[in-house]
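[Meeting: bench + compute handoff]

Bench side (C.D.) handed over the final construct sequence. Compute side (W.E.) agreed to return the predicted structure before the next meeting so the bench team could plan truncations. Sequence as handed over:
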Amino acid sequence: MSDKRTEQDAGAPRLEVVAGPDKGLVFALPEGVATVGRAGNSTLALKDPLLSRQHCQFSRNGSKVEVADLDSANGTIVNGVEVPSATLKDGDEILLGDTRLIFRAGGSAAEAPLVDLGFDSPEDVASDSATRPNWRPLIWAIAAVAVVAIAASFILRGGSAPTEPKIVAPVEAPVLPLVVRYEKVEANDSNIFRYGMELSPSRMLSIEIDDLSEDRHVRKSAEVPVENVERLARRLEKAGMFALESPSQGISPDGSLMRRSVSVASGKRFGEAVVENRVVPPAISDVCDLLETFGRNELGIWAVQYPTEKLIELARESFTRARNLFEQRDISHGNLYDSVKACRESIFYLETVEPKPDFNVEMLDLLEDAEAELSRRYEEQRFRADRAINLKEWQTAAEELRILREQIPDEDDPRNADATRKLLDVENRIRKGKGK
């Protein structure tokens, strides 16, 4: 295809892909909102497997362009800093997964580079210029009429300026400050366990944990960065926090108590829900899990939020799963990796438990064996993949690299990312016919 761009497109703000699977692509940002991600219905669909399906969005209002992360898995990084949103200036670098973009604010048509849109070549344009009619006088006349019409409309409205079109984002961003109160209580004849969380308008997060049977009392607090609070607000909005409805109160036949209560205020919006002695509805459970995860991430409070009996139960379940996966390591390429992961989950649950349960030593031995076996198989598989690449046996290389990715299925693991980059290159060579 040959290069061509209209004068309007040439001066528009644009994104230049300088690294990643789509390197060389140039995208002119339209007025309004443009989404970027792996999904085919994104305004700009990219091939980078490290992107979320809807990763971020660019909002353009004239020459002003903003980028906002859409709760992506790997975040949106502007000039080396992960941001929930940012206003862009010429030359800013945006990193999305393995894709690196450069933002160009645009300018005159003469200064803008040409973009391949599959139309006429520059030679065709040059050859047509001699015979092309000169429409410039007519265009100027139409422009003059438009100016007069706008001026007349301005006078008739009493001098009020024309209203600028508003850009409406897909989801309205919640307004800070954000205030959160959450409590979980589990009580019976032998114990009372309470987990409480509060996020104040000043972004101070406080967590209290009381486990009477174990005489455990945890108090921890810290100020949360504003971008993390904004991200939590967006996720609560997305989870339907402000549309929750509390089910009717239940009665426990044995006198025990199971209670969840959550309330959130964001700007002028407020939502709350209480569940007592009933099965927690999925919508409320999702919000509770979201808040507990936020508290763990911000304050580093993990396993202590559960009673000791529950921690041992969870650890035993993880250990049993790890052992079964190790025994079935030849059935699926990813079983060894999942076995290691399950062992680490068991360690995590037992972090605050003393004394350790009787299966702890056996579990640690299993972790050592699984990690050693996974490392050995990974190195052998990587050798086979690299050998096929060096011999230019592209089809074989693709098969070996796919197995490598199955062995290390976590996309955040550098070993998976390395195999993914190589696989993309190999598949590109196959598509271009070099694998024949």
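W.E. noted at the follow-up: The chain has a mean pLDDT of 80. C.D. will use this when planning the next construct.
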